Amino acid sequence: MRKIKLREIAHARSGDKGDSSNVGLIANDEKAFNLIKKLVTPERVKQHFGGIVKGDVIRYELPNLHCLNFILHDSLGGGGSESLRNDAQGKTHGQAMLLMELEIPEGIE
Amino acid sequence: MKQPLLIGNGQGFWGDSIDAPINLMTDGPIDYVTLDYLAEVTMSIMQRQKQKNPSRGYAPDFVQLIKDTLPILMEKNIKVIASAGGVNPQACREALFTVAKELGFSGVKIGIVEGDDILTRLPDLLDAGVELRHMDNELPLSSFKEKVLSANVYLGAIPIAEALAQDAQIIVTGRATDPGLVLAAMIHEFGWAADDWDRLAAGTIAGHILECGAQATGGNFSRWQEVPDFANIGYPIVEAFADGTFIVTKHSGTGGMVTKDTVAEQIVYEMGDPQNYISPDVCVDFTTIQLEEVGKDRVKVSGIKGMPSTPFYKVSLSYNNGYKASGTLTISGPDAHAKAEKCAEIIWQRLKNAKCSFAETNTEFLGLNSCHGDILPFPEQVNEIVLRVSVKDQDAANVTRFGKEIAPLITNGPPGVTGFAGGRPKPQEIVAYWPALIKKELIKTSVTVEGV
User: A73 touching B, CB under 8 A?
Assistant: First the structure.
């Protein structure tokens, strides 16, 4: 078992839709895409974001872009003009995602 | 037919770089410049302005831009499509005509697209049984109708393309989708049919890649260290072909970069279900997009598949939902975090003593947790920290009272507190967003092109 930081193998951008944010997580290559598909599950993302995400995390796959798109429901304190948060639009959620550490099982490069 | 057609976007939102559109027009060849000026909050502000003064309610920045660039536009025959009309495209056109006359230009044809603003039609629509239920919580609008500030349908590319067909050089729209501004140019120039779903999808993706300006050319890119010359970042351009393929690029000599990775990041920006991206013109499957680097700062986009559009337009309504305010204090020195916690505790206690309560409060520590919560452990000591406290309530008086409780901490709380500037925080109106759907047949768009 070894640990790597998600930002070593992927990049990301986030935006808002109402009170949800989305994080598009893009793997640097196909090998990295297979790895994040296995390890960056909706459950793992929900746990990573802790108190920030109050609702469900939904995951979509875009193999053509080596991308996983996550919808973080109820993650913006009301969203837009209603939110009292400094980051009311989830602009920084992509960078937050990249803080994740992955544990790579033995036998996988 | 001109191929490739060069379309650039010089304004991702109202408040984006004022130099970017001018640079797009002057730093290299360009056929069309699109500009996006509207957001939900903007529409409500513009309705208020129009109610006070019938000749306002649009984006005056756009009029200034045309004042600065009309000679270039006329000389190079560049067309401009801008969602600058807000809730008063006619007044915007009048202001543009005035500018053209002042500059001594005749024969400038300006088109406007209207029909998106349904604020005055709302009572009739509700009476006729159009419920305009909230797309997320499914509540009907009727119980909120007294509070509505603005109501606009997101129009698509077709009426804009009609204005181009009538030979408009500048087109001002009210509420229109951002990708529609770009797609309209392609529909007009390439003669695409309104049910040519794959090509409409391709033009929509081109518009989506352009719509946030420099976010496609290195702005906001994760590996920011790789991005050259942010200060002179070039705004994105597509070189579009009639078959629906296009190349994303920027003017040579500008900063920033266009790679598969910068384009891919913009493609996934604000994305929902990638296989069903819904616009008024077409539904798009993002999993069909193919990216290929075909040169320095050149990414070819192809393979895009579309599906028939839905029978609905999306309506963006805004309504008043109370007031909010935020105040900040900077706390420095030993135990900065602990002192900031103490400051927050004191503020909330004093407001409680004053019998002042709120619908919601929030306490954040900028430098520690305002963006990423407790994803990473806090450092034991920080040199300084910014306390940000916020409240919201239906009663503006409560929010005003809150604003008076920040500055006193500089002298009557823990030491090392500073950074209170700009006066007491004032209540800001909360303009809440109400997305709904409306049948397309209920909306009549109108296109008029006039010249001076």
Answer: no
β partners of residue A108? none
pLDDT per residue as tens digits for the range A62-88: 999 999 999 999 999 998 889 999 999
The DSSP bridge partners found for residue B107 are none
CATH class of the domain at A2-104: alpha beta
H/E segment holding residue B321 = strand B312-332
Which residues of chain A have a CB within 8 Å of the CB of B261? 11, 26
pLDDT digits (tens, 9 = 90+) for B135-169: 989 999 998 889 999 999 999 999 999 999 999 99
Which of B171, B436, B439, A88 lies closest to B180 in space, CA to CA?
B171
Cβ neighbours of B264 in A, within 8 Å: 24, 26, 65-67
Q: Does A52 touch chain B (CB under 8 A)?
A: yes
Sign of the alpha-carbon torsion through B133, B134, B138, B141: negative
Task: Report the C-alpha gap between B405 and A51 in whole angstroms.
Answer: 28
How many angstroms separate the Cα of B228 from the Cα of each of B18, B140, B255, B326?
21, 50, 6, 36
pLDDT at A109 over 70: no
Give me the domains of chain B, ranges plus CATH numbers.
5-116+154-310 (no CATH), 318-434 (3.30.70)
Q: Do A96 and B324 touch (CB under 8 A)?
A: no
Question: Inter-chain contact A18–B435, Cβ cutoff 8 Å?
Answer: yes
A36 lies within 8 A of chain B by CB: no
Complex ipTM? 0.97
Residue B186: what pLDDT? Answer: 98
A56 touches chain B (CB under 8 A): no
Kindly state the average pLDDT of the residues B266-274: 97
